[in-house]
Amino acid sequence: MEEAPTYAPSLPVPNVQEMVKMNPLEVPTKYVRNEEEMEKVNYMPQLSSEIPFIDFTLLSNGSIEELLKLEVACKDWGFFQIVNHGVQKELIQRMKDAVDEFFKLPIEEKETYAMLSNDIQGYGQAYVVSEEQTLDWGDALILFIYPDQYRNLRFWPKTPHGFKEIIEAYSSEMKRVGEELLSSLSIIMGLEKHALVGLHKEFIQALRVNYYPPCNTPEQVLGMSSHSDTGTITLLMQDDDVSGLEIRNKGNWVPINPILLDAIVVNIGDVIEILSNGKFKSVEHRAVTNKNKRRTSNASFLLPQDDVEVEPFHHMIDAQHPKMYQKVKFGDYLRHSLKRKMEGKTHTDVARIKEQVIEK
Ligand SMILES: O=C(O)CCC(=O)C(=O)O
Ligand SMILES: [Fe+2]
């Protein structure tokens, strides 16, 4: 059986949780963003309530109304929240509790799962490619979950007890929900229901658990730099009561607050943007931090295999919608993005035809 391929190296950087523990008031200059990057002038919290909520059960049953909502969400926001998804509340809570317990472990124990210098699985940070780059105020645990043979159990925490089984059960639910969403996405792209799942043959699913410690001056730092997700779709679970996720919409930053417990935040990745020839948007997003509260989130990424070729569907190209992207091999595309710092949508350049303007 084939093991997971290697993705990309990232430079070692300090553990942020530990740094804050030792010196809670200090914000080293390596983390301080310039004002332009923080862009608080374009902060539009009042738009937050317009980000669509979609009933997953109705959607899966083919409700035209929900399919239309999904289409609007993918075109106008690139993000939506799903409710009524059938993932047990108790399982979601067990996942959140286990994540909390893991990050509470002493640093020495967490570091037994530290990323190696050549790849992104394990505990640490990704996307750090130069000594000069401004660093994110957060730590992460990245694991490959599917296909099964991509799992490297060396990086799967043994504490808290049962974490492995919780991750497996939780991820299997994210896979179910994700694949079902792709059926609905196929329909709104004018394709046969199983087309997108078929195109991927077998998905890769990766889990990224994010931990953002509190920051004494949250207006100066970012928990996660602005980026768009490179894969097909992402399913994100946020903390129940701590905000931090912000998304781009018409040049503004709009927060997605956890107002409905257990809602899953879904976003369209670059693969869907390319396949749909730009009709459905892979939207830039970032995480901000809080002064007194730590925040966690966990993201399940559904990605194509390395050898899958991605290019716009013919039927989505016409005189009004000229071809925006050229064909890319997903493995090359992903590695290209992992070799850079996260910087909005700049990594999508390799796939874009000519110098098209990146919408913000
Ligand atoms: O913490 C968040 O809300 C965002 C996480 C995210 O964008 C990611 O892991 O790709
Ligand atoms: Fe993301």
TrEMBL record:
InterPro entries listed in its UniProt record: DIOX_N (IPR026992), IPNS-like_FE2OG_OXY (IPR044861), IPNS-like_sf (IPR027443), Oxoglu/Fe-dep_dioxygenase_dom (IPR005123), Plant_2OG-oxidoreductases (IPR050295)
Domain Fe2OG dioxygenase: from-to ranges: 202-304
GO MF: L-ascorbic acid binding; metal ion binding; oxidoreductase activity
Pfam families linked: 2OG-FeII_Oxy, DIOX_N
SUPFAM superfamilies reported in the protein's UniProt record: Clavaminate synthase-like
Keywords recorded for this protein, A-Z: Iron, Metal-binding, Oxidoreductase, Vitamin C
Family that this chain belongs to: Belongs to the iron/ascorbate-dependent oxidoreductase family.
Protein name (database record): 2OG-Fe(II) oxygenase family oxidoreductase
